[in-house]
Design a protein that fits this description.
The chain is an alpha/beta fold. The protein has helices at about 25-40, 65-75, 100-110, 120-130, 140-150, 190-200, 220-230, 250-260, 280-290, 325-335, 340-350, 365-375; strands spanning about 1-5, 55-60, 80-85, 110-115, 135, 155-160, 205-210, 210-215, 235-240, 245, 245-250, 270-275, 280, 300, 375. Strands 4-3-2-5-6-7-12 form a seven-stranded parallel beta sheet, with helices on both faces.
Length: about 375
């Protein structure tokens, strides 16, 4: 018979400032002090009219975040146009969405077909429409944003989807909006975009999500766990499994985007958006199992340095502590996430993976490398 041998990690990641109760986490208290001192009277903030009917352009909007955001905007009575290349259907009926709700949304959404890298087209097409507000959901580089600003000199608000990945790695967590950023991060294009927005005479707001999950998620976040749970396979987790991270539901992210629209307090401000709870990698595996109605999973810890996975990614999260305070958004915007972690994962499972839909087929090749080294045959 075979015996499972757990590979002990050579080093556990440091946990700085972590107390036995994350609800009394010192870093969060520090973030609260900082935003209370600095946010309510933003320097150079432009006056923003209260949210009324707006002519809104969403850059992107057919894959994930924009699908949920556009529905909320249409329900509020705004005229919404999606700027996409037209390679995917402009609308799709969401799981659980009634035929009548979908028909109403489909009848009201507008579409502008084009490539945002065609800067001349962007300038000509946007200037002809004179949008009031732009939500940039898929922008990655500052060069992609500049033509939009040039085309819309009277733009009321530019709302940008950035990333908490711009923060400089630190032992002092959670990340706050005023923390140091990393100009060399893989999200440096988003950081450069924020700098561009700050340098231009434009009323902007930047939203920095941590890990996003929910129905239609094209990143294998919860889906990675669901595939393994459905196949009754062990869950391979790097190192100790106590690394702490944070997930935010896409529907909560969409409501945060709505909360900054026409909000004077959001003028020229950055907001972290995610769930309120932090979770360990092991805890996330267990939460996914609970959400999908699976037995508690068998978890195998391994040392990633002992394997050569090539270009394949063996685990969907960065192997470190990574989480951010959402206190500023809660107190300044009056926003609060609706979903707890297990509740949100259940929503994702029931409306997506549990119905047999997913973005990527299961690939257990890296799991097999890990488990093959973990299993030692004994006579």
């Amino acid at each position: 018979m075979s015996k499972l041998v757990v590979l002990q990690p050579t080093k556990q990641p440091p946990i700085s400032l972590l107390s036995s109760s994350l609800s009394h986490f010192n870093g969060t208290k520090l973030c609260q002090i900082q935003y209370k001192r600095k946010v309510y009277q933003p320097k150079g903030a432009l006056h923003v009219a209260a949210s009324s009917t707006k002519k809104i352009l969403i850059m992107g909007g057919t894959r994930f975040i924009g699908v949920f955001l556009s529905r909320l905007l249409v329900k509020e009575g705004h005229q919404v146009t999606l700027f996409t290349r037209g390679k995917a259907p402009v609308t799709q009926q969401l799981p659980g969405e009634s035929d009548s709700d979908y028909a109403e949304f489909k009848s009201k959404i507008l579409h502008l077909k084009g490539d945002r890298m065609d800067f001349d087209f962007v300038k000509s097409s946007l200037s002809a429409e004179a949008y009031d507000v732009v939500y940039d959901i898929n922008g990655r580089e500052a060069a992609e944003v500049e033509p939009i600003l040039d085309a819309l000199p009277n733009l009321e608000q530019f709302i940008y989807c950035s990333s908490a990945g711009v923060y400089l790695k630190s032992d002092m967590l959670p990340h706050c909006e005023i923390d140091a950023v990393d100009p060399k991060s893989r999200h440096k294009g988003k950081l450069n975009t924020e700098s561009l927005l700050e340098s231009r005479d434009v009323n902007w707001t930047s939203v920095r999500p941590v890990y996003i999950y929910g129905p239609l998620n094209y990143n294998p976040v919860e889906e990675w766990f669901f595939h393994r749970l459905k196949a009754s396979r062990p869950i391979p987790i790097p190192n100790s499994g106590v690394q702490i991270t944070q997930l935010g539901h896409v529907k909560d992210l969409a409501t945060a985007f709505i909360a900054v629209l026409g909000n004077e307090k959001a003028s020229k401000q950055v907001f972290n958006i995610s769930g309120e709870k932090y979770v360990t990698f092991d805890g996330l595996a267990k939460a996914c199992a609970k959400a999908g109605g699976f037995p508690e999973p068998e978890i195998v810890h391994y040392n990633p340095k002992e394997f050569d996975f090539g270009k394949k990614k063996a685990f969907p999260f960065r192997d470190q502590h990574f989480f951010a305070s959402v206190e500023k958004a809660k107190h300044v915007l009056g926003w609060k996430p609706e979903f707890g972690l297990v509740e949100g994962l259940t929503d994702s499972y029931n409306l997506d993976f549990g119905r047999g839909t997913f973005r990527k087929e299961a690939d257990f090749s890296t799991d097999d490398m890990i488990l093959g080294k973990s299993f030692v045959l004994q006579s």
